[in-house]
Structures are given as C-alpha cells and as structure tokens.
Write a structure and sequence with these properties.
- This protein has 359 residues and is an all-alpha fold.
- The protein has a domain at 6-249.
- The protein has twelve helices and two strands, in the order H-H-H-H-H-H-H-E-E-H-H-H-H-H.
- It has helices spanning 6-29, 36-61, 63-93, 101-129, 133-150, 154-157, 163-171, 195-219, 225-236, 239-246, 256-277, 298-355, and strands spanning 184-187, 190-193.
- A two-stranded antiparallel sheet has the order 1-2.
- The protein is globular, with a radius of gyration of 26 Å.
Length: 359
C-alpha cells in the first residue's frame, strides 16, 4: 500500500484550514439563523467536498486508503448526526437565541477539532508502540455499543446538569440573561459572565465525551492518523448547517441510535480480531499471533456501515409515517365522537327540562 505523499497532506490541511477560517469569520461577522435553503446549500457543499477529497485519495493513494477514508468519514458523520440530538437539547435547556446558535456550534466544532486532534495524536502513538491497545479499544466499543442500544435518553435530557456546571454557576458572577453573543457583560456597573459561558463549557464537555467514543471507532477502520484526522474534519464541517437543516427532522430518526450501536459493535469485533491477528501478549496464545483470526477487509466494513445506516433511515421514516397516520386517525376518531357526546348531553338536558314543572 503506497504512502501518502507529504505534499498532498500539507495541501489538504492548508485548504481545510482556509475553509474553516472563512466559515468562522462568516459566523462572527454576520450572526443569523440560516434558512433551510442556505443550510441545505452549505451541507451539500461540504458533503461534495468530502467526496471530491475521497476521489483524490483514490487517485493519489489507491483504493485501499480511499476506501478507508470513506468508511471513516461515514462513521464519524453518522456519530456527529447523533450528537446533534444532544446539541439541540443543550440549546433548548439554556434557551440560546436562535440568532446566536451558529456561533455556539462553531465554537463547539473548534473545541471538538482540538480535542480530537489531541486524541488522534495520542492514539496513533500508542498504537504504533502497543498493539494490545486494540483489545482495549475493541472492548470499549462493544461496551459503548451496548450502552447506546440500551440508552433511554434520560442522560441526554439532563445534558448540562453536572457538578462542574453547578460549581461555575455558584462561583462565577453570572447575569440572568444573554447579552448578544458576549461571554462577559456589565450589570449595575459590575462585570459579570453571561449564560453563554456555561453553554460553551457544556458544549466542550460534550465534545470531549464524543471524542472518547469516536476516535477508537475510526482507528478500527484505519491506522493512518492523517485519514483519521481528515475524516473527523470533514464530518464536523457542515455540522453547524446540518443542525438547522435537520433540527425538525431529528426526532424522526428514531432508529439511528440502534444503527450506531450495530456499527460500533461491528468495529469493536473487528478491532479485537485485528488484535488477535497481531497479538503480542504472552498470556494469549503464548505471545504469538492467532492465525485463524480473520482480518475484515475495508470494503466489507464500508458495506456494513452503509447498509446499516440506510436500513435505519428507511425504517425510521416508515415508522414515523405510520405514527403520523395513527395520530391522524386517532384525532379524527376523537372529533367524530365529540358530537355524539354533545348530542347526548343536549338530549339529557332536554329531558330534564321537560320533566321540570312549570311555575
């Protein structure tokens, strides 16, 4: 498998850096709530950009690295979409004005990029020196998949209710309302923090948890730190616009969590099989690699990931449509029953009036 050209890697980071900087300046200079059309155009642009990059990966490095990027990008993008559920809850819980939600999301994306960059660097260094870490990554992903499948959503509903946030509220002087997109403001001649600080901290802590889940997942698909980082960048780019585009549709993707649990479990099994294939632990098979442990090819991983997501989306839409029809039928039934009840009451009133003696 050919090595990635250094010029290609440098050029990629330069172009992505310029795009992210432009996106950041656009948010700061013109805070607003994007229309569905604007959000849709931006999401289409970023998805198209990722596909163009994937095509370049195929051209410069061949199908193996190209397939690894696509699989990693789709996995991270799916996890990012799931993260939007939590972002929506955080925005609602802290009553962030719609006009400034773009800036909050942009700060969250920057924090996520920094945290994931650190995790990727540490993960790549550990993997290069300790192959047994794949056992830990695999077990962690299997545990995460189980938690994802059995999660009732109560933790997400209480996003932001933790000890650190409560401590900040009790220690720092805090205003009761927002002052635009400012983190600090002046109230009665005193400088105080606005609730925007709490929102930024909550988003940052959420990003940290997301990084812990997502980085081991993509390392199960590729060991190239460059591919891992670029897949994360492309997954996060456009997430801000996707928030406004899918905000009203997120509740319809009811099976997305189950699909992600299947994907995480699959990658966890793949990591454990890979760890067995390159085993160096002396208490497992005498420190020798296990020949019968198969290596799952990248194209198989890509097929499983795509098929799982497609099935989950289709099943979610079918279920959502069925629930809507059931709600319409129940509403119609309630309306048709109401006149009958009213007629019955009227008849009872007439009977009572008829029996009442004249004065």
């Amino acid at each position: 498998m050919p090595a990635l050209p250094l010029a290609f890697e440098i050029g990629t980071f330069v172009v992505l850096g310029i795009i992210l900087l432009f996106d950041l300046l656009l948010v700061v200079k013109r805070p607003h709530e994007p229309s569905m059309k604007e959000a849709g155009l931006w999401v289409t642009f970023y998805v198209g950009l990722a596909l163009v990059f994937a095509a370049l990966m195929f051209v410069f490095t061949g199908p193996e690295y190209g397939s690894q990027f696509i699989a990693g990008w789709i996995t991270e993008y799916s996890l990012s979409i799931d993260n939007l559920f939590v972002f929506i809850i955080i925005m609602a819980r802290f009553s962030v004005p719609r006009k400034y939600q773009q800036e909050v999301l942009m700060v969250g994306i920057i924090i996520a990029l920094i945290l994931r960059g650190i995790f990727i660097a540490l993960g790549a260094a550990v993997i290069a020196n300790f192959s047994w870490i794949f056992y830990i990554f695999g077990a962690f992903l299997l545990y995460t998949a189980y938690k994802q499948a059995t999660d009732s959503g109560e933790d997400e509903e209480h996003a932001g209710d933790n000890k650190l946030i409560s401590k900040l509220k009790s220690v720092l002087p805090m205003s009761q309302s927002y002052d635009g997109n400012k983190v600090r403001t002046v109230v009665d001649g005193k400088k105080v923090f606005t609730p925007m600080l709490i929102v930024f901290v909550t988003i940052g802590l959420t990003d940290l948890l997301f990084a812990v889940d997502s980085i081991p997942a993509i390392f199960g698909l590729t060991q190239s730190a460059f591919i891992v980082f670029t897949a994360n960048i492309f997954a996060l780019m456009g997430l801000r616009q996707l928030y406004f585009l899918l905000g009203g549709l997120m509740t319809r993707l009811i099976y997305l969590k189950h699909a992600l649990s299947v994907i995480l479990a699959f990658i966890g099994i793949k990591l454990i099989l890979h760890a067995m294939h390159v085993n160096e632990l002396p208490f497992i098979n005498g420190g020798e690699h296990i020949e019968w442990a198969p290596e799952i090819p990248t194209f198989v991983s890509l097929a499983v990931i795509v098929a799982t997501i497609v099935i989950a989306v289709i099943a979610s839409l079918i279920r959502s449509r069925a629930d809507e029809k059931a709600a319409v039928r129940s509403g119609a039934a309630a309306k048709t029953s109401s006149p009958a009840v009213d007629d019955g009451l009227d008849e009872a009133a007439d009977d009572a009036g008829a029996k009442e003696p004249r004065r």
